[in-house]
Amino acid sequence: MPSPSPSPSRFSERETEEYYDAEDALYRSFWDAEGSLHWGVFDSPEEPGFDSSISGSNVRDDFLAACSRLNAIMLENSRIDGCARVLDLGCGNGNTATWLCRTTGAHVTGIDLSGVRIDNAIASIGDVPDLAPRLEFHKASATELPFADGAFSHVWSQATIYHIPDKEKTLREAFRVLRPGGVMVFDDLTKPKPDISDEARTFVYDRLLFDTDFSFYSYMDALRETGFKVLEARDLSAHLARSYSCLSQMAATGEDADRRERFSALSDAYLKMVQAVRNDELGWAQYLCVK
Ligand SMILES: C[S@@+](CC[C@H](N)C(=O)[O-])C[C@H]1O[C@@H](n2cnc3c(N)ncnc32)[C@H](O)[C@@H]1O
Question: pTM for this one?
Answer without folding.
Answer: 0.91
